[in-house]
Design a protein that fits this description.
The chain contains 5 helices and 2 strands. It is mainly alpha-helical. The protein starts with a strand and ends in a 5-residue tail after the last helix.
């Protein structure tokens, strides 16, 4: 089941991504997020914004795009965003990334239900009887 995103869906996804990045930047700048916990929130935002900017322009299937995004973000959060390589920091970053994964799944579900994607049902084509 592959879905091609409509133009309105692309605009919505990119606008949400920009708003999320700006909102996180403002909250971090205003010190509403404690510095000790910032990398956890950054892991969540990184996972979600990467999906919001990647999904509208990829030719991959929806599930493949979500899983690829999540696996890459686990690596990036462990290497880049964690301030110090300790077990607690990596588990915290990966936990926030897992929450980001759930948010991505919710966004994808809402996008399908609101018909922002043209979903072609490949299994329905295979179940049709050939006409004789």
């Amino acid at each position: 089941m592959y879905g091609k995103m409509k133009k309105s869906g692309k605009i919505i996804f990119v606008a949400l991504g920009i708003l999320l990045v700006l909102g996180t930047g403002v909250l971090t700048y205003l010190n509403h997020i404690p510095k000790a916990e910032a990398f956890g929130y950054e892991s969540l935002v990184l996972c979600v914004t990467t999906f919001l900017f990647y999904r509208p322009f990829t030719k991959r299937g929806e599930l493949e795009a979500i899983l690829l995004n999540f696996v890459i973000m686990l690596g990036v959060t462990a290497v880049v965003t964690v301030p110090e390589w300790t077990f607690n920091n990596i588990i915290t970053a990966w936990g926030w990334s897992a929450i980001g994964f759930l948010v991505v799944c919710a966004i994808s579900f809402i996008a399908r239900k609101t018909k922002l994607m043209d979903v072609e049902n490949a299994s329905a084509e295979h179940n049709q009887c050939p006409s004789t």
